[in-house]
Amino acid sequence: MHILLYWRRSSPPRSTMRTTCATLFCGAAAAYNVAPLVHNAQQQQQVSRSAAVLMGEQGIVKLGTRGSPLALAQAYETQRRLGEAFPGELDHEGAVEICVIKTTGDMVLDKALKDVGGKGLFTKELDVQLLNGGVDICVHSMKDVPTWLVPGTILPCNLPREDTRDAFISGGDAKSPAELPDGAVIGTASLRRQAQLYAINPTFKCVNFRGNVQTRLKKLSEGIVDATMLAKAGLNRMNLEEHITAVLEWDTCLPAVAQGAIGIQCREGDEKIMRYLDALNDPATKTAVDCERAFLAALDGNCRTPIAGQAKLVGDELEFSGLIAKPDGSIIYRTTRKGPADTAVAMGTDAGNELKEKVDGDALAFFGDAEILPEPKSSITGVETDGLGGYTKGEYAMDDSGKDPGFATAGK
Description:
This protein has eleven helices and 17 strands. It has 412 residues and is α/β, with parallel strands linked by helices. The protein starts with a strand and ends in a 45-residue tail after the last helix. The strands form five sheets. It has a five-stranded mixed β-sheet with strand order 6-5-7-14-8, with helices on both faces. The chain has helices at residues 41-44, 69-85, 104-107, 124-131, 191-200, 213-221, 232-237, 271-280, 283-298, 344-358, 363-367; strands spanning 2-8, 20-26, 32-33, 48-49, 61-65, 96-100, 137-141, 153-158, 166-170, 185-187, 205-207, 227-231, 246-248, 262-267, 307-314, 317-325, 332-340. Residues 1-57, 105-119 and 378-412 have low confidence and may be disordered. It folds into three domains: 1-161 and 261-281, 3-Layer(aba) Sandwich (D-Maltodextrin-Binding Protein, domain 2); 166-254, D-Maltodextrin-Binding Protein, domain 2 (3-Layer(aba) Sandwich), CATH 3.40.190; 283-374, Double Stranded RNA Binding Domain.
């Protein structure tokens, strides 16, 4: 039997909104208090368990999200923007109800994404709740969203985009990937990053590196890897920029399609919700993301494929850069486009088809079956997770305070 559990968090500064969060479990469980994650790292550490299940009040808008610290930061950002856009309607306590939904991708951290189904693992449980009416909107990191959407749902809204670049985080003295010694071990679950790193130095060893942002920083501080790479956008949203060693420009490491963008999904034909989302949508971000996702779709891309693509508006013109690569970095094909913003989708599709022709029309055969090497050692690998950024047993067990032990405060 499914039990809907409600979550409460303390009110963020400058707001008195009470947010009720929900998640789906099988059987009975405890409820939690989730602290706001959008203001500073100290507040992100104020996650605590509650003693009671809160039942009853429903929000005007029920917002579905994953339970990771970054996902919650993005959910609170969306909640804040809705309140500001609709004062008197969505800015009062309880108006926007944040519903935390466990996803398989959050709970399986000891395997590569491709081994457990790919990036759809981070969205399919949210899709179910959206279609069943459990939530009205779902907030996503756009780079986690498959190019194919579940029928009956649409993705009409992108919030203003964060910095799209990758951040290099060193566990030693290296100030950039090029300064790492031969044979350096780099933690990344991304074949896109692996291919571009191997192009810099083919002696590097990229290994699977899963978990939320704080967990990865903790593992880096343990010396499990020599360096890692993360999206700068996520570090910015969680006020963790202090850990960044260097920000990589596009010519060093071209970011993932839709990196740095937050997308909001809703049911097709939901006019009430569309009124809210129309007010939040950032046209420049939406145009760029639509171009990038069209490029990915033309190449049949997913989490198993080393594909990168970025678009940006420069004046009235859209500029696009894309690449596909062998997972070992031995071959990289690049393409660029410029054109009117209203041709974004056509531009992305054309760029994808160009690169597909370079690999005889079969991009998947070009990519092959390469895999990220397994993580060499970790006190986290294989440990059960509660799906909400905390771990239920072992060295990283969540204590009674509810604090995610992944919140790393150690230096780089």
